[in-house]
Amino acid sequence: MSTASVATGTIDFKELAPTFHTVRAFTVASTAAALAVLGAAWDPRLVWTLLVLAGVALVDAVLRRGRPEASPRPRLLVEALVVTLTVLLIGGPALVAAPMAYLLTAALLILPLRRALLVVAFLTACVVGVFFSAIPAADTQTQWWLGLGAVLVFLAALSILLVASLRVNTKLRTREAALLTEAQAANLAKTELLANVSHELRTPLAGVVGFAQLLRDDTGLLTDADRTEAIRSIAEQSFELAALIDDLLIAARYEIGELSVTAVRTSLRAQAAQVLENWDQRIAATITLEGETGPAVADPARVRQIVRNLISNALRYGGPKIGVLLTSDETTTNIQVRDNGPGIPTESEEHIFDAYYRVPGQSQHAASIGLGLAVSRDLARLMNGDITYRRHEGETIFELQLPLADKN
């Protein structure tokens, strides 16, 4: 009974706990009062035992209103026993409200709202029947007061429970509406993502397949220059395809918490140089690599992936002048990828590291699904570093910051 099914969803017991424990306190207090007033003629040992148990339950119910983490089951069992023994010992309609209140509480906690309301209607009929039935009493006035007491106690408990159930039901419906809106937005985003991923993967793949077929079906019409160009295009498109797949896999593993990195002494210049060596040399030749820095504590493969993503981002969206600059300070070693492009619009700066975000107006660029920067920052933070963006003197600067390795 840690959760309660109300209406069409599940409500955490913590949300109902204050009302539940209020009803507990109300029930055991009325039971204790009946024992104190009407139990003098019965076995004192049983009466006092029940009074002690009811008193402990009352204190516990008051304290639990502010700490609802405990399960209600043990308390229901103990207090149901106290209430039942009290009803059997003393009897009378004034005590009918106690088990009624408990039954109502249990019904509203564990039943859908419509069924709970049926239980409420049934118990209401029972109380009314008791009130108008013949109640054994010393005189008519006592009979009337006992019946009135039963109805008032029951109606008080009923009011508390109905107000609580309506509040919880309203809260649930509001939550369901929000979850439905969120689910619809997520479904739309997933559909758009699948469409974008399919398009961006198919674009380089189509190039690979096309040039491969051209080479396979060559009948001697292709010159050596044509073959070289086809092979170059296959290598370039394969590189783009592998980069996209790497980013998707890294993002998926990061989401499920299964992405890990190593921490070894790593030369950032060597990793940046390796990335440029594997690039199309006609493009890599236009990118400068400057500066020197001490070794970082990082994962070499992940550093290369980050540098590759930052350079790819600059090639797609930046200016014609692109450079990689290595710097360091007392605690960090840094790689800056700089370009003289127009930069990122101010309204998009806070979103550029969000997964699958693409700056409006840049969707025409190929091989971009909005993952490169998000994946790069996640990898940097896993290596106890970070990636920042800034504009300085007309240049766009993305900077990878990693811990500097100990000189020893």
Please give a handful of descriptors for the protein shown:
single chain; 408 residues; alpha+beta; Helix Hairpins; Heat Shock Protein 90; 3 domains; five-stranded mixed beta sheet; two-stranded antiparallel ribbon; 11 helices; 62% helix; elongated
Task: Describe the protein's architecture and organization.
With 408 residues, the chain is of the alpha+beta class. It has three domains: 3-180, no CATH class; 190-255, Signal transduction histidine kinase, dimerisation/phosphotransfer (DHp) domain (Helix Hairpins, Orthogonal Bundle); 264-403, Heat Shock Protein 90 (2-Layer Sandwich), CATH 3.30.565.10. The protein has eleven helices and nine strands. The strands form three sheets. A five-stranded mixed β-sheet has the order 4-6-7-9-8, with helices on one face. Strands 1-2 form a two-stranded antiparallel ribbon. β1 and β2 form a beta hairpin. α1 (13-38) runs parallel beside α3 and α6 (140-216) runs antiparallel to α7. The longest helix has 77 residues, at 140-216. The radius of gyration is 37 Å and the shape is elongated. The two termini are 59 Å apart. The model is unreliable at 1-10 and 363-367 (pLDDT under 50).
